[in-house]
Design brief:
The protein is built from no helices and eleven strands. It has 123 residues and is mainly beta. A hairpin with a 6-residue loop joins strand 5 and strand 6.
């Protein structure tokens, strides 16, 4: 069974940066597409960024393009989300996700979820 352990969330000022990490157990990590989703109070969980199993292809929500970067280190079984130029509207619980087939961009395309980590951006 695959388990995801997230870290790196916290409280930052607007314009600041955070890097989220997601360590994935098991030997399936290197062959699985990964993604990050987030959920703000009163809103549905939404897609943020995705990355192919090789790391060669990435996708981003329009709201984070140019500010966030997803990457992975298969040797460490870890996926990252570098978040720069953070805005108060980025405040949400961020979830790491393993895709069931390709890059997960919808909730139904996620096979495994992390526990979520809170990101709060103050103004």
């Amino acid at each position: 069974q695959v388990q995801l352990v997230e870290s790196g969330g916290g409280l930052v000022q607007a314009g600041g940066s955070l890097r989220l990490s997601c360590a994935v157990s098991g030997r399936t990590f290197s062959t699985s597409a990964m993604g990050w989703f987030r959920q703000a109070p009163g809103k549905e969980r939404e897609f943020v960024a995705g990355i192919s199993w090789s790391g060669g292809s990435t996708n981003y929500a329009d709201s984070v393009k140019g500010r966030f970067t997803i990457s992975r280190d298969n040797a460490k079984n870890t996926v990252y989300l570098q978040m720069n130029s953070l805005k108060p509207e980025d405040t949400a619980v961020y979830f790491c996700a393993v895709g069931s087939l390709g890059v997960p961009r919808e909730l139904r395309q996620v096979r495994y979820w992390g526990q979520g980590t809170q990101v709060t951006v103050s103004s």
